[in-house]
Amino acid sequence: MTAIRFGTDGWRGRIADDYTFANVRRCAQGFARWLQDTGQAEGGVVIGYDRRFASEHFAEACAEVLAGNGIRVYLCDRAAPTPAISYSVVARGAAGAINITASHNPPTDNGFKVRNRFGGAVDPQGLQEIEARIPPDEREVKRMPLAEAVARGLVERFDPSPAYIAQLERLVDLEALRQADLTIVVDPMWGNGAGWLRRLLSPGRIRVVEIHEERNPLFPGMKRPEPIPPNLDALQEKVRALRADAGLATDGDADRVGLVDENGEFVDQLRVYGLLALYLLEVRGQRGPIVKTLSTTSMLEKLGARYGVPVYETGVGFKYVAPKMLETDAMIGGEESGGFAFRGHLPERDGILAALYLLDLMVRTGQRPRQLIDWLFQMVGPHYYARIDVEFSPERRAETRARLEAAQPERLAGLRVVRVDRSDGYKFYLEDGGWLLIRFSGTEPLLRIYTEATQAERVPALLAEGRRLAGVEGDPS
């Protein structure tokens, strides 16, 4: 059967190809064994799911396996945002969670994520231990029919919303947001964030217009439910048509956020991270470490120096960010994909809370997104970012990796290379504070090339240098 490997954030596969009920049950059995072997099983497990094809049925299959192993299950009674599922772990004192979601992947895919007792990603060592316990086939999988498990009290269905909403109310003044004279367009991208911001901000003066709120596992009108262009074309058009103050998007499982300014222009994720850090430091007066992946912005180092807080850089994925946040009691942690976590909440991405914080930043400062970006650039200087994704066969990895290992460029796009980091891909730091990163996706068959520059005209030149170094000049992106 399929050899299952956990990538940047869990295991993902193509539905009915490698992502089957048999393989999902095998994953659940591996997680059950790990919980038992590490003495955590007594706390029970939260199981949640997204709005993708058959996700609720895959979640029930996991519940049958956990129950078959004698582990209590708290099974969400509806599709729920990933952060609500993760917060349920903390609220219920559970040992962890299984979440059936492929996040921002194409509609053909689904996924299997696990979370620890803090509601955050299991660290790389733990993921390896879970993988090692996944049985080779279904013969070693223990199962109990769902109806029997419910009757025995091993499976309890519950609504994860109330506890999560109460937590959001502790973190942000929702009433102040409700009374703001703003028009906001929200795009949940057919996913789990549907209805949430409208629910949290009603009733009140603020006007919330939602698009793509129905469940549709095909994600029509977009390549995938990832809150970046061109997937946000409809949101940008709606913001312009309504002359709205901002547009906000959450991805398929609502753990990432996307921002569109008052002109209908997309605000890239690196600038959003800079805005959120500035909001916590300047508007809220918080202090504490910042954790970032190596694929995100150098603006954070500049803010850290300005406000006297340390900045830690990790590999890509919250399996690295979450442990570092817990270790350092970080104020904020985040990554290039638009996922951000906050102290006092969870070491886990939360697109809904991030959206509320962005609204709170607008309300407290009286400024709209374009003005806020100007303020950020006054603090740290202008920064320009882009990423291209190249479809990439796994068979080419060894050749490309060898090519990149041998690369020792002294200059890129006319700038001197001052340092190279090979801990997670190949990151070239440049003399002006910019950088170029080339790495293999941990969730899809893609080669990603990222860059951040201090001058806009250098961005295409640096991306071209990345293609050259990787040997993919002619490949479509």
The average pLDDT score comes to 95
Structural class label: alpha/beta
Strand-residue fraction?
Answer: 15-25%
Sheet with the most strands: spatial strand order: 1-5-4-2-3-6
| CATH level-4 homologous superfamily of the largest domain | Alpha-D-Glucose-1,6-Bisphosphate, subunit A, domain 3
Which stretches are poorly predicted, pLDDT < 50 over at least 5 residues? none
CATH architecture identity of the largest domain: 3-Layer(aba) Sandwich
What is the terminal separation in angstroms?
A: 32 Å
CATH structural fold name of the largest domain: Alpha-D-Glucose-1,6-Bisphosphate, Chain A, domain 3
CATH class of the largest domain: Alpha Beta
Q: Major β-sheet, in short? A: 6 strands, mixed
The Rg value, from CA coordinates, equals: 22 Å
Number of domains: 3
Global morphology? globular
Q: Considering DSSP H and I runs of 4 or more, what fraction of the residues is helical?
A: 25-40%
Oligomer: single chain
Count every beta strand, where a strand is a DSSP E run of 2 or more residues. 21
Number of helices: 16
